[in-house]
Specification:
With about 220 residues, the chain is of the alpha/beta class. The protein is about 35% helix and about 10% strand. It contains 7 helices and 6 strands; from the N terminus they run H-H-E-E-H-H-E-E-H-E-H-E-H. Helix 6 links the parallel strand 5 (about 155-160) and strand 6 (about 175-180). The longest helix is centred in the N-terminal third of the chain and has 16 residues, at about 15-30.
Length: about 220
């Protein structure tokens, strides 16, 4: 993780709920197939806190082998682009022009200050939502609160029910909060398509003299 996150994470890791979560994960990783790999669970925190401009909040990691890599919606270069990300790219293309990524790997967004975070950071293989209610939601609530308090003029994109539940944690006067259904094929047609989040994001950033994201 980036050193800028160390004070926050060190404090959070010492709390009782996170110690319980750690014990659960220790057992889960030793007995079952869990995604993403241990070394990538906190990959979203490789983003320099001081460079974060946008927070994209999803649900939980991909639960199929070879997909989850610790960044919400992102997959390795070698992996097929998942349906949710295909829909994200479709909305980018319709909203701001052709997306820049040749694969499903979103590290270039991260390098531009986009924090790709899920509300739950681990999952059991082939069991979507299997690590809900174990403490991750408490952790990501703390993350959103910390970002809200410490960073100016952020854009929060909250996609799906779990992500949108965090909207009340954010100061809407200080930050831009964009909500929509999840880009999953099950819900994209109920409001994700046509949400114009990518253009709205860049307009907000430019209005605050911040460089827009090359989507």
């Amino acid at each position: 993780m980036h050193p800028s996150w160390r004070p926050f994470l060190t404090s959070e890791f010492e709390k009782p709920y996170f110690r319980e979560l750690s014990e659960f994960l220790k057992t889960a990783y030793s007995e079952k197939t869990i995604f993403p790999p241990k070394a990538l669970v906190f990959r979203a925190f490789w983003t320099d806190l001081n460079s974060v401009k946008v927070v994209i909040l999803g649900q939980d990691p991909y639960h199929t082998p070879g997909a989850a890599e610790g960044l919400a919606f992102s997959v390795p270069d070698s992996a097929p682009i998942p349906p949710s990300l295909i829909n994200i790219y479709k909305e980018i293309d319709a909203d701001v022009g052709r997306h820049k990524n040749p694969t499903g790997h979103l590290e270039n967004w991260q390098k531009q200050g986009v924090m790709l975070l899920n509300t739950v950071l681990t999952v059991e293989a082939h069991k979507a939502g299997s690590h809900r209610g174990r403490g991750w939601e408490t952790f990501t609530t703390a993350v959103i609160k910390y970002l809200n308090e410490t960073r100016p003029h952020l854009v929060f994109m909250l996609w799906g029910r779990d992500a949108r539940a965090k909207a009340g944690l954010i100061d809407h006067e200080k930050h831009l909060v964009l909500e929509s259904p999840h880009p999953s094929p099950l819900s994209a047609h109920t409001g994700f398509f046509g949400n114009h989040h990518f253009s709205k994001c860049n307009e907000f950033l430019k209005a605050h003299e911040l460089s827009p994201i090359e989507w």
